[in-house]
Design goal:
heterodimer; A: mainly alpha; MetI-like fold; two-stranded antiparallel ribbon; elongated; B: alpha+beta; 5-stranded mixed sheet; 5-stranded antiparallel sheet; 16 helices; 21 strands; 29% helix; globular
Chain lengths: 330, 565
Amino acid sequence: MIARGSESPWRSSLRQLRRNRASMMALGLLMFMVVASLLAPVYAHLVAHVNPFPANVQGTISLGGKTVPVLQPSTVGFGVTPIGPTWHFSSYFLGADPQGRDVFARLLYGGRISLLISFSSAIICCVIAAILGMAGGYFGGGIDWVVSRVFDIVWAFPVYLLAICLSVILLTSGLNIGFIHIAPGSLLLPILIIAAVYIPYVGRPVRGIVMTLREREFIQAAVGSGASDWRILRKEIWPNVAPTVMVFFPMMVAFDMLTESSLSFLGVGVQPPNATWGTISNDGLQLLYTRPWVSIAPGICIVLTCAALNVLGDGARDAFDPKAKLRGGA
Amino acid sequence: MKNSVSKWLRVAAAASALSSAAFVASSASSASAAGPTYQPAHAGGTLKLLATGAGGTLDPQVNYTLQYWQLYQATYDGLVTFQKVGGTPSFTIVPDLATSLPTVSKNGLTYSFTLRKGIKFSNGQPVTVDDVKATFQRLFKVSNPNAGTWYNVIVGGPACVTTPATCTLPGLVVNAATNSVVFHLIHADAEFLDQLAVPFGSILPASTPPKDQGSTPIPGTGAYKFASYNPNTALVMTRNPYFKVWSSAAQPQGYPDTIVQTFGQTVESEVTSVENGQADWIFDPLPSDRLQQVSTKYAKDVHVHTLTADWYLPMNMNIAPFNNLKARQAVNYAIDKNAAVTLDGGVQLATPTCTILPPNFPGHVNACVYNKGNGSTYAGPDLAKAKALVKASGTFGEKVAVVSQNDPVDANIGQYVVSVLNSIGYKATLKPLSQNIQFNYIQDSNNHVQISLTQWFQDYPAASDFINVLLSCANFHKGSPNSINISGMCVPSIDAKIHQAENLMITNPTAANKLWGQLDTQIMAQQAPWVPLFNPKLVDFTSSRVGNYQFSLEFYMYVDQLWVK
């Protein structure tokens, strides 16, 4: 493919991304998930007329002209089973969870928080990783040593083990460092924990790129012409690092979503009454035998969203990463 | 019970003893007590039990879990024990290694036993009074969980608690010539015999090292012995070659030749194994999504029993907002106990309760102070009254954290409680904690827990095991993770009545139980330290080949009495 001489590399890359049909379908799916999640209050309040957060243990719904409890006591044996999917869009479309709450409404609300956490933590992760990677790679010496050791230490722990340990500790007491006080149930905790554990995954490649760039002629020329470090980093280094970070970003969102879901599924992520796809999956664990949709539905949402992000990430890599262009043209 | 382990381990602690009333009754009849008729045709085979995990140390003087206390019934004996029969008679204490129930002095300070002759441990050594003496010294040396609260009533007990290594326990006097064993107590204790009848009182060889034996089996006198134990894989019991029945009421002959408890499967997998006949019983509670299937398809193999236990919400009476009586009363009015029952699995698996003492328990009085209407049977919540009380208390809008365990049932009930608290004007959040830490966490006043969800299973059927243990000043220890009076209630006038009832238990159990019942109602009306939620039921699921299922109210299912042939 030959880029037009008048077009900036960014425009060229974006144009290539737009031409990637798979990426555009993935983007469409992702946008659908985002919009559907954003419309959660509209669905809950205007369509289903439910509040999906408080327990609804003694609640009833009208089904086929009959009033039935959302938690149905067994008539012949033991136990209580939540009502299954009604497949009526306006009323318990996917049935009820063990607390008698509308699963579909919670799924939409859960999507908001799952997406919020995964996007937020990916942004924080990429920004911090880019700053640390650029600082370490450009300045070298003591700064690079400190940055590299921090990366090494974080990298030394399995991601999930580290995230679980941090979550368990912070869930009990919250985060209290100096003037920073974050309550135990705050959504900021999973956002920060997930962001922190993935920083080396972005920071190390960024550092490597910057170390290579540092030796290139255009950087040496900038140094020779008396440009400040800040200017070199901003004007010369960052534009070359940004495509790499952009390629990483969708993948990090997908990783973060999976991590958040895993932590929440294990009960050490987002805490009730907040819902995420992970917590809803966990709610359904005790109903796998009788009401599998409570777990399957959020699982499908996670799979679709992560698949869309990965396809989009591949497209972004093809569009923004020159090496990917070379591979594609080979 | 003064236990600090998870819910199902705490069930374990449901070791019981007899109330004085029952004790008196059993004293008269115990000498002739007889167990069920043994049917040799059903003997043999291997009984296969399943548990998700092992129950910890195998040492009967250390282990405090139902999982192993059930097994100890077939492997160890004390001087006395709970009768090995099903139903209410299982609360009756009968002589075991002792020839008869003890002669108790009039002042209640001396308990005299005579040890049976001719009984051998599973290693072939004869049981002697020296073994009895060494056993009770060892109780202190191995730091038995209840040494400091149950057995320190023996003269010399407090010194043994302080310096276990040099414990001599002078209050326990034995005579090899007459085979007599005499306990001298510091003060009269109506529950002492109960405490001798639980597995902590199992008589062990004097040669047993004075430290927790962990996974090393200790010889016992029961019908079975522990043959091997690997906490990662399985626990195997085989017949004790030296066992001969001396009292079928105390230690009957067992049916299977071998009993194996295997660890490591998930509960779902365990249920499937029992359904397929690959195993015979599971220790763990049935998962909620299998209850209906199991109870309908395998109805004849499902056994349900009401437990003398409480699920309740203790409120911290020493910190806001529940240092305000009206706030505590408001929560009592607001919580729908039927909703809690639904979340526990429905009316077949739990019964709503308003009282501290469970139904059919000594001292229980049918009363319901916080109720819709004025009936003594629970009719539902009264949200209007609850909201009015919250406003009157001046605690409206305060933040409240509900601390529950993070297992599905606890977390669901915790979330329900949060919803209710929010609906009456608080800003409530849920703090779900791991089962391993929650019970100790909520006891420690340093953690400033406002309200929590917990359970209490009887140690023995005595009202004091609920009211005294859970609500007296003596059991509130500021800043300690072992402060079982979780609500921190310490009301001198009520404490005086508790002591009065305890003393009355020694001389007049009937009057004492009446007083316990009055105290129950008085505490709920005047202090409202808890919201009693429900009394749970236990579901046992056995394979189709299993027969002779018998349930003890004290130690639950008799494992060794199941036959597989």
